[in-house]
Amino acid sequence: MPSVLETELRQLRERVLFMGDLAEESIERGMRALVEHNTSLAEEVIKGDDRIDDLELKIDWACIRILALRSPEARDLRFVMGANRLVPILERIGDHACNLARAALAIGHKPPLRPDPDLLKMSGIAREMLRAALDAFAASDATTARAVIERDEEVNQLYDRLFHDLRERYTIVIVTHNLQQAARVADYTGFFLLGRLIEFGETDRIFTASSSHSV
After folding, report:
1. pLDDT band at residue 189, thresholds of 50, 70 and 90?
2. Which of 22, 33, 130, 160 is a Cys-bridge partner for 42, taking CB atoms 3.0 to 4.6 Å apart?
């Protein structure tokens, strides 16, 4: 029979993965709303963000409860701390999806965009990285987590190619930032598995001044 700690850790993992699924779906729908100028879909994305925000609060309290009452150690402690750091990233991905949806509403019912193929490619890579990072989290797979982080170089090349052409269109920044967040999901997966944070490339330099820390 599983212990109380094991049960609560399992429930925590399930909630984080469910939140990740919602964030992944939200960013895909937000991008589609923008490209297709689909205002009804954009409104659904914005309304759906409340579910992601609500899950963030519930997971925060679950982490506090486990830390306060169960005194987890070693790998279990890293898992709780990793989940606690991961959840705000998923919440921000949901926020980026809302930004895409709001851009779709601002454009209104004009003819659909014909976006640069590289922009669509970046969006696809973002979703692939996020899905792989969440799978690595679910399976406790440090190898997959590292592979996601290493893939960040792919977006750097696309970013450099697109930046000067699209610098007046903020969607490129939103999609690129989402790629950074996918890499960070993998980064914290590596943290609870390996006990240290892994640097995840140049995209991080664009937005933050992060550095590795051993635990």
Report:
1. low
2. 33
